[in-house]
Amino acid sequence: SSGINAEWPLRPGLTALAESGTILDRLYVQPICSPTRSALMTGKYPSRIGQQHGTINAGEPWGLGTNETIIANYMSELGYAVHGVGKWHLGYCSWDMTPVRRGFDSFYGYYNGHETYYTKVTHTYFDFRLDTPGPKDTVNDKVLFEANNTYSAYLYAKQASQVIQEHNPDEKPLFLYFPIQSVHNPNEVPDNYFQMYEGIVEDEKRRTLLAMITAMDDAAKVVVDSLKTKGIWENTVFIFFSDNGGPILGIGNGQTNYPLRGGKYSYWEGGVRSASFIHSPMLPPAGVNTQLLHVTDWLPTLTFLGACGVYGDEDKCSGPKLGDIDGSNQWGAIRGSRSSSRTEFLVNIDQDANNSALRWHQYKLYKGNPGNGAWVPPPRINADLFRSQFTKHVEDRKRYSSDLDYVFAGPYDAQKIQLYDVELDPAETVEISKQNPDIVNKMLERLEYYMSRAVEPHNKPHDPNSDPSKFNGTWTPWLASC
């Protein structure tokens, strides 16, 4: 909902950075939080590391395996100061799973997947802290009860600014991971932001959401201004992307992925095509980049940058050895000096949900139920007019036949095969599997290959021993190992 196809909120800072940078129009992520973060951190598809089914919920004894080397480890080995500010959501059943035991020099924020913006509460209990490394592989965990009643975007901006101000660029460069809470549910925002949209947006959920985006924009501005004050902005690469599409319909909070289909939790374009851009004073504005990119590509791309620099020659410098990952260095594709090395990516394989999806060249194939496939226009749009215009659009496209009742219909067979040309038809309006059996068979073969590399989901049920009442009312690691 904060993407380039959205009803524009007031966000002058991020908009200016995007328009004077490069909009990454074909960056794909996972359909929900934890899987995207695990892919970002490891460069691996979630199905290879047990992160493909749902998210890590409060008090569950599992997470991103401690056997995985993550981006913080690599950047630290490259000589960077590495700090995290915001949301973790990769597991915290033992201290070894927490950020400062995995390469971060500090972490400020919360471990769980969501919480209130003011009171820092999730599932009845508190979750907000500042972690730093302690002696003998321990964690100095300072629970910040004093943060209660302060809007989180203000706190994250202040902490990021402090990290930047205290950083010594003469000693080492800085890698700042800033997964800010905004604009996850619940819908909460200071009144001054809400009032900015008086008379502009009638729908209250939508109005609150847009106000939250404006607050996020101000937090990003604090970070950029701090980098400028410190004198290191000119050497900075600033990357912005969402970890999934906006939630829609019954689970929505005013978001829309219009004109894309579906949203968070689904494999449709609205669930996995990210709102993203990259900006750097070292790079010229490049408009809209349509190269095919995937979230797993960030690990090899950023470690290449860390080792070789913005102007590094990919034929002469390769960065650190990353092992058997699924991502590839896409710096040349982002800069425009070469084409993307990608022709496909695995959207997901989820054995528990009995579904999977694959992008191959311009095609996207779904096997099983890909999730809610509704088209949800912004609240101001006349939905009946939208449907009639949509129907006309499909009828005008003589290339394919289409069953509109099927396109707009609900449940279907759990093993249903669907194929879409998402370059020609990004809104996924016309299902074309019957017209392209050879492509379907090829893509099913590729899915079988990825299935051969998949492991079972690592999900585990809630552990009563995690009860925060045992830990001063705070969600805290409770196991020696997990």
Describe the SSE topology:
Layout: H1 12-19, E1 22-24, E2 27-28, H2 33-42, H3 71-77, E3 81-87, E4 106-110, E5 121-122, E6 125-126, E7 129-133, E8 139-143, H4 152-166, E9 174-177, H5 191-195, H6 204-230, E10 238-241, H7 269-272, E11 276-279, E12 287-289, E13 293-294, H8 298-308, H9 331-335, E14 344-350, E15 355-360, E16 363-367, H10 383-396, H11 404-407, E17 417-421, H12 437-452
Parallel strand pairs: 1-12, 2-13, 3-4, 3-9
Antiparallel strand pairs: 1-11, 4-7, 5-6, 7-8, 10-11, 14-15, 15-16, 16-17
Walkthrough of the structure:
It is a single chain. Strands 8-7-4-3-9 form a five-stranded mixed sheet, with helices on both faces. The chain has helices spanning 12-19, 33-42, 71-77, 152-166, 191-195, 204-230, 269-272, 298-308, 331-335, 383-396, 404-407, 437-452; strands at residues 22-24, 27-28, 81-87, 106-110, 121-122, 125-126, 129-133, 139-143, 174-177, 238-241, 276-279, 287-289, 293-294, 344-350, 355-360, 363-367, 417-421. The chain contains twelve helices and 17 strands. With 482 residues, the chain is of the alpha/beta class. Helix 4 runs parallel beside helix 6 (204-230).
Notable features of this structure?
482 residues, 5-stranded mixed β-sheet, alpha/beta, 26% helix, single chain
Strands of the largest sheet, in order across it? 8-7-4-3-9
Rg, please? 22 Å
| Number of helices, counting only DSSP H or I runs of 4 residues or more | 12
Distance between the termini: 36 Å
Strand percentage, roughly? 5-15%
Q: Report on the biggest sheet.
A: 5 strands, mixed
Principal-axes geometry comes out as globular
Helix content: 25-40%
